[in-house]
Design goal:
The structure is a homodimer. Chain A is of the alpha+beta class. Chain A is globular.
């Protein structure tokens, strides 16, 4: 899994790179079962929507679920990010966003690095997300929207929104969003389950609510160059990790191997 | 404006008919200016979102705005509905739904006739909406979603939702929506400003919130066969009209003529 020059140029210019069907249906099935298990857990890392029951996001599952542990070290995700960031990376955050059928709430317009800088004192935007779709993302189930090229202006002023959803977020005002969209347009990448979206940590994005009968689960690995680790430990360890050990990628077949291991153990 | 056999067959089978660019950009501009004027008015017919400021929907503007008066008698809207309902129609409701940029809230899953039957005692579903887009409807700005063929099962059980938005609505439960979508799928017609969507009054539909920087204003004419007028006057007259006079359509150029008249008067 090595990005070519054209991909690297697009990422630099537009701030994103979409990789259709990077994972197979079999691998996705393993991860989707893991996500259902995790969302059913009663633990502080699983944040609920305002309704108090629907899972909104589950943090740090690489620490308590074997499929997620392997995904967090998967060469198809870690490789491209290592390549772009130019060296060893550690896991700053790992989360599964549910955007559940009928009840999945919005994520307001924001930059990830905005939060990492303000809350965690991450020195530079030498960190990024790679997002893996666990279901088909369609026009109906709350696709992520990104403002291309919005990563070029650095960290944008933001307000800490504690009201709109159950999860606090540094969000960008409407006038700024309108200006950025005027300049860069808007995209909402869709694709089959198993597709991945890699995006710059300053790329402005958000997602609408999901009122369709289809879940739209996405796993996010937020990977950070080891030299660029956070300096402030304000947020819970399971939200902003404090283990800066370089990730050693596993074998490419690590997820399907898990299926065999489980079958052999039964 | 006469629907052909194929269109009539599709409407009967699927419950909807999309008519791309039925109105010209010039006509749309006249109506869009009217909508901005109306949303800025401080009157009870203009319902605000939960934020108390953003316009959500404006009722009965055909009674206080000349462009809307003409639109409410426009042959390109009234004609197809007369044809389908088989005779004279009156205006049961006229509304402009704003779905404003950034702040436009959802319309939950519902049937229009469900409300007209329960609240207004309209005897039969011999009434329907024709909806006119005043801006381009895209994947970003909260397109209406319809469940094809869901009009075939009559009135579906519903609960009166007074909580979710600023406007009360008879809404259908998630399990039923999931079943209907399993059977009929889901569509979200998109198109240029000036396009129109005609749909059966029992066709289940809803629309997500709009977090894009683009408004998505739609005018709805709810036309009812004159024999089928409502029997109960529970809701305000400006929501559920009580004037059952048959609509006499104006000339096809009535909207552009208004531009000339205004210019001549200045």
């Amino acid at each position: 899994m090595v990005l070519n020059d054209e991909q690297l140029a697009q990422f630099d210019r537009e701030g994103w790179l979409f990789m259709p069907e990077l994972f197979s249906p079999g691998e996705v099935a393993v991860l989707n079962r893991a996500a259902r298990r995790i969302f059913a857990m009663d633990r502080e890392e699983v944040v609920r929507e305002k309704d108090g029951t629907t899972a909104r996001t589950a943090f740090a599952a690489q620490n308590y679920d074997e499929a997620c542990r392997r995904l967090g070290r998967h060469p198809r995700l870690v490789g491209p990010v290592r390549q772009i960031l130019g060296g060893d990376v550690y896991m700053h955050q790992f989360k599964i966003n549910a955007k559940a059928a009928f009840n999945g709430d919005v994520w307001q317009w924001h930059q990830d690095y905005g939060t990492w800088a303000r809350d965690d004192e991450m020195p530079e935007p030498r960190a990024m997300n790679i997002a893996l779709f666990l279901e088909d993302v369609t026009e109906f189930n709350g696709a992520l929207m990104f403002i291309p090229r919005s990563h070029k202006g650095g960290v944008i002023e933001a307000g800490h929104d504690l009201q709109t959803t159950s999860y606090p977020l540094w969000t960008i005002d409407n006038a700024t969003i309108a200006r950025l969209v005027e300049e860069g347009g808007l995209i909402a990448p869709r694709g089959k389950a198993g597709s991945a979206m890699l995006f710059h940590s300053n790329l402005v994005h958000g997602s609408p609510s999901n009122m369709s009968p289809w879940d739209r689960t996405i796993v996010y690995l937020s990977l950070c160059h080891v030299d660029n680790h956070i300096r402030r430990f304000k947020r819970a360890e399971w939200i902003a990790h404090r283990d800066f050990t370089p990730i050693e990628a596993l074998e490419d077949d690590c997820l399907m191997a898990l299926v065999d291991e489980i079958a052999a153990a039964e």
